[in-house]
């Protein structure tokens, strides 16, 4: 059987690990063992934060809608309830964008719900 030397494979793996930790500080970017651990933790945080980002954006949209409807005589929950009863199926993302970028159109929508 032919002897297999592992130097090339090991070096390739090491380079790959260290390339992933480029920009990390201290030993996390220089030493393979510490870098592997850093990659593992970074991956766990990235996975978790991809999910929490969705929560945070929905909260932001809710906040923006609430801020826009308060001066028009609604609360957020009453506004959403009125939308559902009027069978208007706009999602919170588009409502928040409408409230921020086109306040006159948002006001017309609110007036339609009131009267």
Briefly summarize what is shown.
With 115 residues, this protein is mostly helical. 73% of the residues lie in helices and 0% in strands.
Please specify the SSE layout and strand pairing.
Blueprint: H1 7-20, H2 32-69, H3 76-85, H4 92-101, H5 103-114
Helix pairs in contact: 1-2, 2-4, 4-5
Structure report:
The chain is built from 5 helices and no strands. It has about 120 residues and is an all-alpha fold. It has one domain: Ribosomal protein L20, C-terminal domain (c-terminal domain of poly(a) binding protein). α4 packs across α5. The longest helix is centred in the middle third of the chain and has 38 residues. The mean pLDDT is about 95.
Notable traits:
single chain; mainly alpha; c-terminal domain of poly(a) binding protein; rod-shaped
Helix proportion range: over 70%
Task: Determine the strand fraction and express it as a percent band.
Answer: under 5%
Low-confidence stretches: none
Query: How are helices and strands ordered from N to C?
Result: HHHHH
| Spatial extent as radius of gyration | 26 Å
Global mean pLDDT:
96
Assembly status: single chain
CATH topology value: c-terminal domain of poly(a) binding protein
Q: In one word, what is the shape?
A: rod-shaped
Number of domains: 1
- Ends distance: 87 Å
Number of helices: 5
CATH architectural arrangement:
Orthogonal Bundle
Number of strands: 0
């Amino acid at each position: 059987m032919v002897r297999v030397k592992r130097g090339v494979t090991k070096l390739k793996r090491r380079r790959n690990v260290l390339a992933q930790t480029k920009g990390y500080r201290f030993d996390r970017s220089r030493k393979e063992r510490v870098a592997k651990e850093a990659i593992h933790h970074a991956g766990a945080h990235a996975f978790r934060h991809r999910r929490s980002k969705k929560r945070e954006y929905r909260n932001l949209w809710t906040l923006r809608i609430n801020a826009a409807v308060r001066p028009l005589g609604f609360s957020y929950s009453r506004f959403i309830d009125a939308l559902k009863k009027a069978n208007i199926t706009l999602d919170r993302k588009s409502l928040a964008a409408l409230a921020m970028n086109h306040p006159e159109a948002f006001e017309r929508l609110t007036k339609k719900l009131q009267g």
